[in-house]
Amino acid sequence: MSLESDKSRAVIAISDSIDAGEQPERTMLRDAVRVLLAQLAAQNPGRSVEVRVPPFGAVQCVEGPRHTRGTPANVVETDPITFFLLATGRLAWSQALAEGRITASGIRSDISALFPV
């Protein structure tokens, strides 16, 4: 069994947990978030927006000016479940933003077009 198939299985397992109304298992959620963050960065290469999903990870993506020191000018941050729902198309960016489930700062931080990944 490959590491990649294990990580892909984590995405399916989290989907199944959410569908069943259960609390997802933490390590599976971590793995699923990391897989989806990596996919987001791979599909949208660049370093102008930092997407943070504490405590599981962060990536830089989107072409454009990049930061070199300190806090990036364009930051998107959300919790793991919200990110998972966005990345898998189960939650719309506009709804998550309206509900305060996403913080987005900077002129390039509207990455709604990048979801689902």
Q: State the strand order across the main sheet.
A: 2-1-3-4
Number of helices: 4
Envelope shape: globular
Mean pLDDT: 91
Strand content: 15-25%
The structural class is: alpha+beta
Please mark out the parts with pLDDT under 50 across 5 or more consecutive residues, or reply none. none
Radius of gyration: 14 Å
> Total strand count, please?
4
Query: What share of the residues lie within helices?
Result: 40-55%
- Name of the CATH class: Alpha Beta
Task: Give the biggest beta sheet.
Answer: 4 strands, mixed
Distance between the termini: 24 Å
CATH structural fold name: Nonspecific Lipid-transfer Protein, Chain A
Please tell me the total number of domains: 1
User: Architecture in CATH?
Assistant: 2-Layer Sandwich
> Which series of helices and strands comes N to C?
HHEEEHHE
Structure notes:
- The chain has a single domain, classed as Nonspecific Lipid-transfer Protein, Chain A (2-Layer Sandwich).
- The longest helix is centred in the first third of the chain and has 18 residues, at 26-43.
- It is built from four helices and four strands, in the order ααβββααβ.
- By secondary structure, the protein is an alpha+beta fold.
- The protein has a four-stranded mixed β-sheet.
